[in-house]
Amino acid sequence: xxxxxxxxxxxxxxxxxxxxxxxxxxxxxxxxxxxxxxxxxxxxxxxxxxxxxxxxxxxxxxxxxxxxxxxxxxxxxxxxxxxxxxxxxxxxxxxxxxxxxxxxxxxxxxxxxxxxxxxxxxxxxxxxxxxxxxxxxxxxxxxxxxxxxxxxxxxxxxxxxxxxxxxxxxxxxxxxxxxxxxxxxxxxxxxxxxxxxxxxxxxxxxxxxxxxxxxxxxxxxxxxxxxxxxxxxxxxxxxxxxxxxxxxxxxxxxxxxxxxxxxxxxxxxxxxxxxxxxxxxxxxxxxxxxxxxxxxxxxxxxxxxxxxxxxxxxxxxxxxxxxxxxxxxxxxxxxxxxxxxxxxxxxxxxxxxxxxxxxxxxxxxxxxxxxxxxxxxxxxxxxxxxxxxxxxxxxxxxxxxxxxxxxxxxxxxxxxxxxxxxxxxxxxxxxxxxxxxxxxxxxxxxxxxxxxxxxxxxxxxxxxxxxxxxxxxxxxxxxxxxxxxxxxxxxxxxxxxxxxxxxxxxxxxxxxxxxxxxxxxxxxxxxxxxxxxxxxxxxxxxxxxxxxxxxxxxxxxxxxxxxxxxxxxxxxxxxxxxxxxxxxxxxxxxxxxxxxxxxxxxxxxxxxxxxxxxxxxxxxxxxxxxxxxxxxxxxxxxxxxxxxxxxxxxxxxxxxxxxxxxxxxxxxxxxxxxxxxxxxxxxxxxxxxxxxxxxxxxxxxxxxxxxxxxxxxxxxxxxxxxxxxxxxxxxxxxxxxxxxxxxxxxxxxxxxxxxxxxxxxxxxxxxxxxxxxxxxxxxxxxxxxxxxxxxxxxxxxxxxxxxxxxxxxxxxxxxxxxxxxxxxxxxxxxxxxxxxxxxxxxxxxxxxxxxxxxxxxxxxxxxxxxxxxxxxxxxxxxxxxxxxxxxxxxxxxxxxxxxxxxxxxxxxxxxxxxxxxxxxxxxxxxxxxxxxxxxxxxxxxxxxxxxxxxxxxxxxxxxxxxxxxxxxxxxxxxxxxxx
Length: 979
What we know:
Blueprint: H1 5-27, E1 28-33, E2 35-41, E3 56-58, E4 70-77, E5 89-93, E6 97-101, E7 107-112, E8 129-131, E9 142-149, E10 165-171, H2 173-191, H3 197-215, H4 220-232, E11 241-246, H5 258-278, E12 284-286, H6 289-298, H7 300-312, E13 315-317, H8 332-350, E14 356-358, H9 369-374, E15 380-382, E16 398-402, E17 408-412, H10 425-434, E18 443-448, H11 459-468, E19 476-479, H12 482-489, E20 498-500, H13 516-538, H14 546-558, H15 571-596, E21 598-599, E22 606-608, E23 615-621, E24 624-630, E25 635-636, E26 640-643, E27 645-647, E28 652-654, E29 658-662, E30 668-673, E31 678-679, E32 688-693, E33 711-712, E34 715-722, E35 726-735, E36 738-747, E37 753-760, E38 766-773, E39 780-785, E40 788-793, H16 799-803, E41 807-808, E42 812-816, E43 821-826, E44 831-835, E45 838-845, E46 858-868, H17 874-885, E47 890-891, E48 901-903, E49 908-915, E50 922-928, E51 934-936, E52 938-940, E53 946-950, E54 956-959, E55 965-967, E56 972-978
Parallel strand pairs: 11-18, 11-19, 12-13, 14-15, 15-17, 16-20
Antiparallel strand pairs: 1-10, 2-3, 2-4, 4-9, 5-8, 5-10, 6-7, 6-9, 16-17, 21-47, 22-25, 22-47, 23-24, 24-26, 27-34, 28-29, 29-30, 30-31, 32-33, 32-38, 34-35, 35-36, 36-37, 37-46, 38-45, 39-40, 39-42, 41-44, 42-43, 43-46, 44-45, 48-52, 49-50, 50-56, 51-55, 53-54, 53-56
Helix pairs in contact: 1-2, 1-3, 2-3, 2-4, 2-11, 3-4, 5-6, 5-7, 6-7, 13-15
């Protein structure tokens, strides 16, 4: 006879309610309430200074602070009554995060509140218990010091930060055991198929336990434990094995400031050390060196504990990067430095060579990453985030990822699709049901613990694993390091499917644009650091400022964390980040001023070209234009210094190659190529500044935003200036309370059109874009990415192509057909809509979450439109884009330097000239950027005793010479020159 399904559902709810409302309260017995005194501050106070505060009494139930305020709590009690051999626990919930400190001033246990915005599908976030028996003194008194933050794991707090619990309790361990038995078995029942043979017996057994809890007759607890023990001993024959790794993905900033992350690290890792001491099988992974640097600075004793467990193999160091960085917006050399500093830190500090890149939460992955991974000496890649795609389900969990250069890296995306796993039976069931490659590999990774805001695994995770190691009908579970897992699945690498190109996330495309000033500073400082390294190296002073530049690089890399640079953090993060960017910029200017006499741009001053190719660039000061043509690694005064004269407004302009017509509203109505008489724009025109209602948050642009009729901005007034070589137009735009001042500079010789905007944006909920609707007929467009290019479809003919309504690129995008090429270049923009002839740049988004008044600010940027009456190489466009993007410092006089090398092939590009990381050599990093095999000679302009090829982290591969060097398509090569 079949169950009445409604009745069965009611019975299940009865069992669950009995577990939570009858059994769970039996676990704790309060033996003493604690007396509390509190000292509240706006910013953290160290343990050594805690006694300097003003303390006041506070009671359980009272609110204690405002969001992100800090406090020291002193918890005391006298006359504690305890039985011999009885364990006394502190039970603490302050509606926020907290840490118990020992007498030496180190955190020994982190606490998190039970009420939180954490997704309960992943488990309960609260951590409220710690054994304080050893703290009870000979007089049966206790004194505990707690540091607290008025924020939950996600930067909120509930109920006005009331203190909910501060008491000493004893715990009924047998009732606690039954609770976890029931939790595991009820969750298994919930996800089991009612037609499975074990379902009825499991249901009936749990109903029997329910009745024992409800009526509590003699020896009910013994009887209940005997039943659950029997059910938990059923052995599985499931062929899949789950490799379970403890984890706490901690965002280095997000809904809280960086200073709170440093405290989160102390709380989380003190929890981890406590679990490691109490559970012999527990293994935990740490994935960001920056966190460990903070930990060593703030909590040196805890850091020594970390080193101890790393040596034992029970803490695994994961991930090659300094931080878990965004890979869409970070520049090519920055991604290498993430690897260099991260891998070297692990080696130098722990003697450990990491083998995997660990990016669970990053918002899509550049097609350059497989080569960066492999050429950093790593073999494996782990992500979760592709499971977040909104339209198309990514087809694989375990696969070989091939980059634009054909590098191949073994990749795993845990089938649960979560880095905050509850490790309940529902997780194991999902892995068993949905693991796509289980016909090839029988192993899958699960990352369990409370992440994002930190906290890590709790006692509940350990209890669940113990009950499921071999529980029918689920996969087996074993505690494991991730590197052990990857070594196991590597055996089947040749049989796994392949994915070529970028791992595009069909989600979070707004992060290419949000927080425009952060993205502007990021690119500016990436370029500035590279230029200074080149100049110092060519000058022979590459070791002099190395420690300063290393420190600055690491801070810039910190801000490339995937919730900072993408624009998805709270306002305070950006207030602090931008202040630091400005300070870094000043520090670099001071270095150049003190060492080289940095100057402002002028007709008698020299600019430095840090590139290995000739650069054409202009610098505009009001109506004066300085035009430069500078040889590689050289200095030059402007070849033209022209002050433009005011002229009558005209809407038509003829250059040597094009006829340009402006609409009275300010946009470009027509661009006609004179050599072919071809119109390059449709009736829509070009540089149409459009404002869209933006209903997304900092992460997401609604994919239907283009269905609205945008507000087309109209310029007024318009001023014009002219000379024989250049034409300058100044447009003013107004949208509600926001304004844009636009300078359009047209080179009459080349026809290049350069746009510079000074924006004062004051209106929330809008998106500013510029679009050029071209007559180019091309099914694909080419996008500049790190270390090469990527072609993407311009059509909306498939679900995959349609999902890519916003894509990322760096310095340029081009479309070309059989006769013409159009390139759009920019100096700090990353979001593009390139579809069906439209070339559209996302200039600004004024969202209101998580950052209040996001991008309500002043900002500036440049972009340029170039037309070529033929197909043109990526190398030529790249050279032109470098003129817009590069940092070309100006000096009063030439600096005596010699170019380091000359390369014979224009498609071989330089990424870096820098000092060797740990010795006195010089590093040259080059790459091929047109996707073709190329042989070249690299002529050195001075003699070195030895030349080596290295990987990206400067580990020597072999001694070599630079004659007839072969680059495969998009290949990166790094050379070490030593004397």
